[in-house]
């Protein structure tokens, strides 16, 4: 979902159309056979059309139709060039010249669009989590540690899994004794201790309201790293200042993007595995290849860097930790050197943080921890079983049951081992990035980007909120997005310093880190400058273009132009941007069921029945080199 939403925002196409096309074309990447006409990849592009409209969205230097990020962004780019969003039926017909195809895409789009926003938010939050154990892991109920450490050959699916169980409420993860157990997402420690049933355990609640229980731990970390006030020096070295147009208009296509039929139940046959079923003018220029239609910036191609000894101290900080994690190894295995005062042993430092910018605090109930924090270690079981961790998930929402974690673990493991979001083991959505790429960034990279971007001014106490992970990913992405479109926001209120209640007596979205107030644009105060066409008005219009979980619930100012906008006299000096917390009826701290209990069981069982999509570790033979210079597409 995040990929569809980011691509849709980048090119102004409703994300549900992209999901519907993906479902019809390849059943979400589960049937990648080449069609009878030669169409290929996740979105079934004809080679000539891919040459014109292909996108290197993950910036690995290749435009690959078999990479889902590249393919989905390219489909959005093609649809925009073909007339979207003004005439979607015309754009879809251009994509595939068949009336039945247009009707099918439109129907499936309506079904997907009917999904509950709370459900989309909760599932998106779960999809953004990390695998909870570092090192070689196998998960089942009765397997040995020797099997768990079995090596995965290059090219094999990294999700080495067993069959799902609809009645299972937790799962045992078998790993080597001492393997680090990490926080799967930013969140708050709700419970910590020891009990007869759970052994040593810790319960973490993430920013979406999902709860993760780690039980039968061999040990629990005594301390965790807390960011000091200013981590700006670790952020990106250069903040981009261009105020050029967001996109370059592509020529209208004169060839269909897709054609032909696939073997194996491909086009037009989703096999019951779709989102909806699971959840209930100008001619091409000579030469064929067109200038890009994506990023404002020309970002450098990221080259692969592999370390012979990635677990050495300097290598870990320079990308070795991500290299190890990408191939299932343990970055903190015995033999890794540790130094006094370092983060080693407390934090899986895949982000390259400097230990000098952190202090250690006792790990206790109420602690706000960042994803990748080591909360404990795998240890021997008192009953004599092999070393293992018992892991459980309870989705957001009041009354939500514990669900079978296996389908989610499969997805997390697959994402870590492939190049969906990163090039060659490194997350490349850093530095120069398009709007769509910013919206795809994980929270940790958004934190670094926001703190290091001098186009974004944040009051001192608010910088602490960002550094400590106390504001939501949506708030971080909004700041980066507004800066990217040339508005240079001055943030006057986040969580710190804002009252728990609003002036009307309701619980403020600021209290949960789900809102921000902006008092200046490009140095100009909002007070006295809220006129139609002005920067506040433009910011509101920009925010209303966002999709999915990034779509704000509240835009409060002196404007009332429909949608989430609200006019309030006490907002003359700032724009308030608020987001919905998953499972909360739009009010922080107020739980509501995202799905009924039985529906959660049905959903997870359905997810477990669906095969994982085919995603390669490396670019395919059909990929094309992204041009350096001259173009302005993703990574070209």
What's the short version?
The protein has 636 residues and is of the alpha+beta class. 27% of the residues lie in helices and 14% in strands.
How would you describe what is shown here?
This protein starts with a helix and ends in an 11-residue tail after the last strand. Helix 1 packs parallel to helix 4, helix 2 crosses helix 6 and helix 4 packs across helix 5. The chain has three domains: 157 residues, Lysozyme (Orthogonal Bundle); 208 residues, Glucose Permease (Domain IIA), CATH 2.70.70.10; 125 residues. It is 27% helix and 14% strand. A hairpin with a 4-residue loop joins strand 6 and strand 7. Strands 2-3-13-7-6-5-11 form a seven-stranded antiparallel β-sheet. The C terminus is likely disordered. The chain has 636 residues and is an alpha+beta fold. It is built from 17 helices and 23 strands.
Provide tags for this entry:
about 15% strand, alpha+beta, 3 domains, single chain, Glucose Permease (Domain IIA), Lysozyme, about 625 residues, disordered C terminus
Gross morphology is globular
Largest β-sheet summary: 7 strands, antiparallel
Q: Specify Rg, calculated over alpha carbons.
A: 24 Å
Average pLDDT works out at 75
Low-confidence stretches: 141-163, 230-247, 268-272, 280-304, 330-341, 422-431, 583-591, 629-636
C-alpha end-to-end distance: 25 Å
* Helix content range: 25-40%
Provide the structure class. alpha+beta
How many DSSP H or I helices? 17
How many domains make up the 3D coordinates? 3
């Amino acid at each position: 979902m995040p990929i569809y939403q980011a691509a849709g925002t980048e090119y102004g196409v409703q994300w549900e159309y992209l999901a519907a096309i993906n479902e019809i074309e390849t059943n979400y990447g589960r049937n990648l056979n080449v069609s009878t006409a030669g169409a290929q990849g996740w979105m079934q592009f004809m080679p000539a059309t891919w040459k014109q409209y292909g996108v290197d969205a993950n910036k690995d230097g290749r435009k690959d139709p078999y990479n889902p990020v590249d393919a989905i962004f390219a489909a959005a780019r093609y649809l925009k060039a073909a007339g979207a969003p003004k005439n979607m039926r015309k754009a879809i017909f251009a994509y595939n010249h068949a009336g039945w195809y247009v009707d099918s895409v439109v129907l499936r789009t309506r079904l997907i669009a009917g999904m509950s926003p709370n459900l989309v938010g909760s599932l998106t939050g779960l999809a953004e989590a990390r695998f909870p154990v570092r090192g070689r892991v196998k998960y089942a109920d009765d397997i040995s540690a020797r099997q768990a450490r079995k090596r995965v050959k290059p090219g094999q699916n990294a999700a080495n899994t067993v069959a799902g169980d609809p009645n299972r409420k937790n799962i045992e993860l078998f790993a080597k004794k001492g393997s680090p157990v990490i926080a799967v997402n930013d969140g708050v420690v709700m419970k910590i201790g020891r009990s007869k049933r759970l052994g040593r355990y810790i319960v973490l609640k993430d920013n979406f309201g999902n709860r993760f229980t780690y039980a039968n731990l061999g040990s629990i970390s005594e301390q965790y790293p807390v960011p000091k006030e200013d981590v700006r020096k670790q952020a990106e070295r250069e903040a981009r200042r261009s105020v050029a147009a967001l996109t370059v208009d592509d020529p209208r296509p004169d060839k269909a993007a897709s054609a032909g039929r696939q073997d194996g139940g491909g086009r037009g046959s989703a096999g019951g595995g779709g989102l909806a079923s699971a959840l209930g003018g100008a001619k091409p220029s000579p030469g064929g290849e067109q200038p890009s239609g994506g990023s404002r910036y020309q970002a450098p191609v990221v080259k692969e860097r592999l370390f012979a000894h990635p677990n050495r101290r300097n290598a870990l900080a320079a990308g070795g930790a991500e290299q190890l994690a990408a191939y299932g190894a343990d970055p903190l295995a015995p033999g890794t050197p540790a130094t006094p005062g370092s983060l080693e042993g407390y934090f899986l430092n895949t982000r390259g943080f400097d230990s000098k910018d952190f202090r250690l605090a006792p790990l206790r109930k109420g602690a706000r921890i960042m994803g990748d924090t080591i909360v404990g270690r795998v240890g021997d079981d008192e009953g004599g079983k092999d070393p293992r961790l018992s892991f459980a998930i309870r989705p957001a929402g009041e009354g939500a049951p514990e669900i079978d974690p296996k389908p989610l673990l499969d997805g997390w493991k697959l994402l870590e081992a492939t190049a969906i979001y990163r090039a060659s083991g490194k997350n490349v959505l850093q530095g120069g990035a398009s709007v769509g790429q910013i919206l795809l960034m994980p929270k940790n990279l958004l934190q670094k980007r926001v703190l290091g971007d001098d186009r974004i001014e944040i009051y001192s106490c608010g910088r602490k909120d960002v550094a400590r992970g106390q504001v939501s990913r949506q708030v971080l992405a909004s700041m980066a997005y507004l800066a990217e479109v040339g508005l240079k926001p001055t943030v006057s209120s986040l969580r710190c310093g804002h009252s728990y209640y609003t002036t009307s007596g309701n619980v403020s979205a600021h209290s949960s880190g789900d809102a921000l107030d902006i008092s200046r644009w490009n140095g100009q105060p909002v007070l006295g400058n809220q006129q139609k066409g002005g920067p506040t008005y433009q910011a509101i219009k920009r925010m209303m273009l966002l999709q999915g979980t990034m779509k704000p619930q509240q835009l409060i100012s002196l404007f009332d132009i429909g949608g989430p906008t609200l006019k309030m006299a006490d907002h003359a000096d700032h724009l308030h941007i608020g987001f919905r917390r998953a499972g909360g009826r739009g009010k922080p701290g107020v739980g509501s069921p995202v799905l009924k209990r039985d529906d959660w069981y049905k959903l997870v069982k359905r997810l477990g029945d669906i095969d994982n999509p085919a995603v390669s570790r490396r670019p395919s033979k059909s990929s094309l080199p992204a041009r350096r210079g001259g173009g302005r597409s993703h990574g070209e």
